[in-house]
Amino acid sequence: MRALTWQGRHDVRVETVPDPEIVNPRDAIIRITSTAICGSDLHLYDGYIPTMRAGDILGHENMGEVVEVGAKSPLKKGQRVVIPFTVSCGDCFFCKKQQYSACDNANPATTSDMSETLYGYPMGAALGYAHLTGGYAGGQAEYLRVPYSDVGPIVIPDGLEDDKVLFLSDILPTGWMAAENAEIEEGDTVAVWGCGPVGLFAIQSALIMGAHKVIAIDHYAARLDLAKRLGAEILDYREVDVREALFEMTGGIGPDACIDCVGMESHGLGIDNLVDTAKAHTFLGTDRPAALRQAILACRKGGRVSVPGVYGGMADKFPIGAFMEKGLTLKTGQTHVQKYSQKLLEMIGEDKIDTTFLISHHASLEEGPSMYRHWHDDQDEYTKIVLKPGMERVAA
Fold first, then answer.
1. Cα(67)–Cα(379) distance, rounded to whole angstroms?
2. CA–CA separation, 80 vs 64, rounded Å?
3. Which residues pair with 218 in a beta bridge?
4. Where does the record place the Alcohol dehydrogenase-like N-terminal domain (predicted)?
5. Are 130 and 49 in contact (CB under 8 A)?
6. Collapsing DSSP states into helix, strand and coil, what is residue 186?
7. Beta bridge partner(s), residue 127
8. Which stretches of the chain are assigned E, i.e. beta strand?
């Protein structure tokens, strides 16, 4: 089959690779009909995530048609399914608490040692995202092996096209959990850093949950415009002092909740971010948490900070004093996708959530390498890319 493979920093290629096979009775094989490039794929593209190997198949936002099942899979050939990016056994202590992204069994012992050393306990597993999280092949390909197909996939009813449901695989539940972790109350003011796909879904979710005002912060005009169309007030951090603006927009109190949808690769010309960038380029540091610092400092006393943005290493100059002295609550984590899939599918079916507004480009799988370049370099124009294996190549 054809698949989009990681070969090194800023080097992805479409290659012919072996077809996936059933290796466990709980497995299923799907023919990919839609697969998206995620913002966190850029951390792989930029070389920030360790344990990638040349030839690894990318892609953790996937859906398709079931074409083969193991003996213990409840799926049936011909069903359309969305696959959560989290790989979860359904049986362990964490899965039974619906903390699916913390599954203790899906990440094999052979690949979980490094995360246990880094984080104290082994990470859960994910599709298409480094050997740190199990080394499972991703779905930016013609076919995908789905482990634990009796736990993760959600069957899609007829009449709902791919674009409406594809993001149940990751970014929609991630935005929803980000808002849920912010513990939004009726009438709250919520500030959201980053208007990429997760940020936009966090904005939409916060408004559904009862936020009175959502303030979106970014510097890309097209993304800020999408946030504004959702109902957010917007701030371009290149044009204003964000903390000062938030202070004024909240009557001097500060936002009730702050959501960091940026993660480890913050942009900006603040002195702290310039120092972070220099350290990252000289291997003296890893993450660039400028957005998280700003969120903690801007949040009102007694407020909540939610962090769906991906971090991987150590955060320098973390404002622990402000965090403690203001009595903030911080919640974060990879998304427990399976916990939210059914509820969000029903909301999509009832037209309570729109998932299509942020898609800027559809492309063939063969165009994947150029789409990664655009996703990295042209973020104001490319707000979400959906790859369609089998789609005729249209770009140069």
1. 35
2. 6
3. 236
4. 25-153
5. yes
6. coil
7. 136
8. 2-8, 11-16, 28-37, 56-57, 61-69, 80-83, 86-87, 125-126, 143-146, 154-155, 189-193, 213-218, 233-236, 257-260, 304-307, 329-332, 361-364, 385-388
Q: Yes or no: say if 126 and 85 are a contact pair by the CB < 8 Å rule.
A: yes
> What is the phi/psi pair of residue 331, to 5°?
-130, 145
- Rounded CA separation 343/362 (Å): 27
The fold of the 2-170+336-388 domain, in CATH, is Quinone Oxidoreductase; Chain A, domain 1 (3.90.180)
What's the CATH number of domain 171-332, 3.30.450.40, 3.30.70.270, 3.40.50.2000, 3.40.50.720?
3.40.50.720
> Whole-prediction pTM value?
0.93
Nearest Cα residue to 102 out of 90, 114, 111 = 90
Asked if residues 182 and 375 have their Cβ atoms less than 8 Å apart, the reply is no
Amino acid at 252: G
In the chain, CATH 3.90.180.10 sits at 2-170+336-388
User: Looking at 112-126, 258-272, 303-317, 346-360, which range is the least confident one?
Assistant: 258-272
- In the chain, which segments carry CATH 3.40.50.720? 171-332
Task: Work out whether the CA dihedral 124, 126, 129, 130 comes out positive or negative.
Answer: positive
276: three-class secondary structure by DSSP: helix
Instruction: State pLDDT tens for residues 350-372.
Output: 999 999 999 999 999 999 999 99
